Amino acid sequence: xxxxxxxxxVFGVLTTTFGALADPTRLAIVERLSRxxxxxxxxxxxxxxxxxxxTKHVGVLVDAGLVTRRKVGRTVVCALRPAQLSxxxxxxxxxxxxWNRTVDRLAELVEGEGxxxxx
Length: 119
Description:
With 119 residues, the chain is mainly alpha-helical. The chain has one domain (8-118): Orthogonal Bundle (Arc Repressor Mutant, subunit A). It is built from 5 helices and 3 strands; from the N terminus they run ααβααββα. It has helices at 8-21, 24-33, 40-44, 51-63, 86-118, and strands at 38-39, 67-72, 75-80. Strand 2 (67-72) and strand 3 form a beta hairpin. Helix 2 (24-33) crosses helix 4. The radius of gyration is 21 Å and the shape is elongated. Keywords: DNA-binding. It comes from Kribbella caucasensis. Residues 6-100 form the HTH arsR-type domain. This is DNA-binding transcriptional ArsR family regulator.
């Protein structure tokens, strides 16, 4: 069996990333920022959240390394940091490869048993 366990550092990134994305509002923020930068007001509008609540959600995403924010005058602009997701993508790719191989081996085993029944 192939070990698909992440290293300690990667495990930390995965835990932080998935923890940040576990909230539906934060997931929606990331989805929105995947299209373009947005102000805090633009991010708040569809969720009817107060400015402090949106600041808290964005702060979790910033702490997880998924989002950056910068001030432009009096406006706070947020942007996605897609590079942070590369560790997650790599781990999911390894996991996908593992499961594809497992399913392929199972299919070979089932096909082999079917051949034995015909003899």
